[in-house]
Design a protein that fits this description.
The complex is a heterodimer of chains A (423) and B (236).
Chain A: E1 20-21, H1 30-38, H2 42-54, H3 58-69, E2 72-73, H4 100-119, H5 127-156, H6 163-188, H7 194-256, H8 261-280, H9 296-311, E3 315-320, H10 327-347, E4 353-360, E5 363-370, H11 385-397, E6 401-406, E7 412-419
Helix pairs in contact in A: 1-2, 2-3, 5-6, 7-8, 8-9, 9-10, 10-11
Chain B: H1 3-6, E1 20-25, H2 29-39, H3 42-45, E2 47-53, H4 56-66, E3 70-73, H5 81-88, H6 90-93, E4 101-106, H7 111-119, E5 124-127, H8 132-143, E6 148-149, H9 151-162, H10 171-174, H11 178-188, H12 193-200, H13 204-220, H14 225-232
Parallel strand pairs in B: 1-2, 1-3, 3-4, 4-5, 5-6
Helix pairs in contact in B: 4-5, 7-14, 9-11, 11-13, 12-13
The chains are: A alpha/beta (423), B alpha/beta (236).
Chain lengths: 423, 236
């Protein structure tokens, strides 16, 4: 089936395929699609069809053939600026309503056809068949358009609300066709034969349904099964591609670096984090990590991930609450990052470094804790600027506070507090 | 591995006498083997692995047959997951004597998984990156009827109970006390119970009772947003 008919935004594909237009169509979108394909105004094409219609109804025959053969799609022509009808004033996307022009055109068409039909005289008995034929044609058009709509709805997922309407339209179409066929029968013979004719028709239909029904059902089941299989295969291909790209490469690297436990651990951790991100990240949030974070939680996690990769020490991150970053918090994040680096460098052998961030009202609290040897704060020489400047000093300059807790043999903990700029 | 040097860490309270019977439920044979190797040396750790299971049906059968004291339960299992095991073993959990207690052990740290098994009745939740030493300690803690909160679980709970935008259905259950929050916060920061007790000038027993109270609130609280909250966060 023409999966390619899915509306793509390609402006000028190398091979231009003819599609019926789904947008702004009157009946089947044949004229619009052709116009788009040939680069002609729609009105011209419609005129040609109308003109051909008067040549013994050739136009309608052609139109019907096009309708059957050409798949529905977004034609060679971009939809005209009709977007007014697509977005409601409140900004909500909504179904395009059939605009007034289209309705008028259809009514005019019907009146014209009626006048045309009552005026022409094909002579003899043929005259009596015109109205039934028209009814049948109308019914067929209704049903076909409805089938088109169903297909279109499956692209845009907008069909749910319209389902009852669709069913009603389908039933109306079938009813019209049935009415037309009955009229045929009535016109041909006498009304007395109607009962027999209807019974015979029902019997034939029932027989066909009995014979072909199971086969049709099986076919539709096979079709939907095949579709799910294809979707599954696509998903599997995507997973396989990802696993190949990252996991297999990492495993290869691990095999090569088997003698270097530190490197193996670093690789495994980085891969675990990446895979986890890929698996559990909600859809639509973007799968790449490279963007600059704009919330506190993202910033903490990003900093921790970088430190983890660089120093090969696991960092366990727990974040409670979240808020957007402001200048003060950016400074706090830099201080936290420095604290993480220190913890990874000097306290990493004691196990995972614990990073905790909490947003509570206006207060943002970050703690970085390692279980390393710890140190005596007073014994640190005054010229060691790392902690004093890049952690304590930075926090104070930005209106926050930093506390250092450490005792030999008891690990080190850095606590950073900052007020958010906006309430 | 570090637990070689520290030895039987499960036994800081004279564990040589204590034994705990454990069933491992995990669909990865490799993982079961790894855990078995790490904690299953009964003489050193005091943990005796009496059964293993790879899916829900097997788990229920093995647990019913062996009646272990602690079940290490994976969250993702064929046949309905850890939650299903918990549901079908509810009568064993509530048994008056020799109740079976569950400790969830999972590679997933998605909030909905964590909250799901805790709501299902698990006494704690630890991630698979936990060291053998800590795991043994957690098993013993659960066996004593205590709750085990990993830092991440503590973070989840704080987060879930922090948003008090909806009026609580049951004041007692739907709010954490100030002390409980403090304890959780320290757990989330990576403190051990002993360190928390020292920090807050309370006894380890008091810390334990706070944690158990939080677990009870988590399991019983009918805050309807709790589930919604968890599903809203596939991963933190």
């Amino acid at each position: 089936m023409p999966v390619a008919a899915h509306p793509t935004e390609t402006d000028e594909p190398p091979l231009r395929k003819l599609y019926r237009s789904a947008d702004g169509r009157m009946l089947g979108g044949v004229a619009r699609g052709l116009a788009g394909h040939l680069g002609l105004p729609v009105v011209w094409v419609r005129f040609v069809f109308l003109a051909l219609f008067f040549a013994d109804g050739l136009g309608s025959l052609l139109y019907a053939v096009f309708w059957i053969v050409v798949p529905l799609g977004v034609g060679g022509r971009a939809p005209e600026p009709r977007s007014l009808f697509e977005t409601a004033p409140d900004g909500r996307r909504r179904l395009r309503k059939p605009d007034r022009g289209q309705v008028f055109a259809l009514i005019a068409l019907a009146i014209g056809a009626a006048v045309f039909v009552s005026n022409i005289d094909l002579g003899g008995s043929a005259n009596r068949y015109i109205w039934p034929t028209l009814l049948i044609g109308l019914g067929v058009i209704l049903v076909w358009r409805q089938a088109d709509n169903a297909r279109r709805a499956s692209w845009t997922e907008e069909g749910r609300r319209r389902r009852t309407l669709q069913i009603a339209r389908g039933l109306a179409g079938v009813g019209l066709v049935g009415l037309g066929l009955t009229a045929f029968v009535v016109v041909r013979g006498s009304a007395a034969q109607l009962g027999t004719a209807v019974t015979a028709a029902i019997a034939v239909l029932g027989g066909i349904a009995l014979l072909a029904g199971p086969w049709l059902i099986r076919m539709s089941q096979d079709l939907s099964e095949e579709r799910t299989m294809r979707i599954r295969a696509q998903e599997r291909a995507e997973v396989a591609a990802h696993v190949h790209d990252s996991v297999l490469h990492t495993l290869t690297l691990i095999q090569r670096n088997a003698e270097d436990p530190g490197e193996v651990r670093r690789l495994a951790r980085a891969q675990e984090r990446e895979l986890r991100n890929w698996l559990y990240k909600p859809e639509g949030t973007g799968k790449d990590e490279d963007e600059t974070p704009d919330t506190l939680a993202e910033a903490v996690k990003k900093a921790a991930a970088e430190v983890e990769d660089k120093h090969g020490v696991p960092l366990e991150v727990v974040v409670v609450g979240d808020c957007p970053l402001d200048d003060g918090l950016v400074a706090q994040m830099q201080a936290a990052r420095e604290a993480m680096v220190n913890a990874a460098k000097y306290g990493g052998e004691g196990g995972a470094v614990q990073v905790y961030a909490e947003v509570e009202g206006r207060r943002v609290f970050v703690s970085v804790r390692d279980r390393g040897p710890g140190f005596d704060l007073d014994a640190v020489p005054g010229d060691r600027m790392g902690v004093r400047e890049s952690i304590i000093g930075r926090m104070q300059r930005n209106g926050g506070t930093a506390r250092l807790k450490s005792a030999p043999g008891d690990g080190t903990e850095v606590e950073l507090e900052m007020e958010r700029a906006d309430g | 591995m570090t637990e070689e040097t520290t030895g039987g860490a499960g036994g800081d309270a004279g564990s040589q006498a204590r034994r705990v019977r454990v069933v491992l439920v995990d669909d990865h044979r490799m993982f079961r083997a790894g855990v078995q190797a790490e904690i299953g040396r009964t003489e050193e750790t005091g943990v005796e692995v009496v059964g293993e299971a790879a899916d829900v049906d097997q788990a229920v059968t093995v647990i019913t047959a062996t009646r272990p004291e602690v079940v290490l339960l994976d969250v993702h299992l064929p046949g309905g997951g850890g939650v299903e095991v918990l549901r079908r073993c509810a009568n064993l959990m509530g048994a008056a004597e020799n109740p079976v207690r569950f400790l969830a052990l999972s590679v997933s740290d998605a909030a909905e998984d964590v909250i799901g098994v805790i709501r299902g009745g698990a006494r704690g939740y630890v991630t698979k990156t936990i060291t053998g030493t800590d795991l043994v300690a957690s098993v013993f803690r659960v066996q004593e009827g205590d709750a085990v909160f990993s830092p991440r679980l503590a973070g989840f709970v704080l987060d879930a109970f922090a948003s008090t935008d909806a009026p609580p259905v049951d004041e007692d259950l739907d709010r954490l006390t100030q002390r409980e929050r403090e304890v959780l916060r320290l757990i989330a920061r990576g403190y051990a119970y002993k360190e928390i007790a020292k920090q807050l000038f309370i006894s380890v027993k008091t810390v334990e009772s706070h944690v158990s109270a939080v677990l009870r609130k988590l399991q019983l609280s009918n805050r309807h947003e709790l589930t919604r909250w968890a599903t809203a966060r596939r991963l933190v």
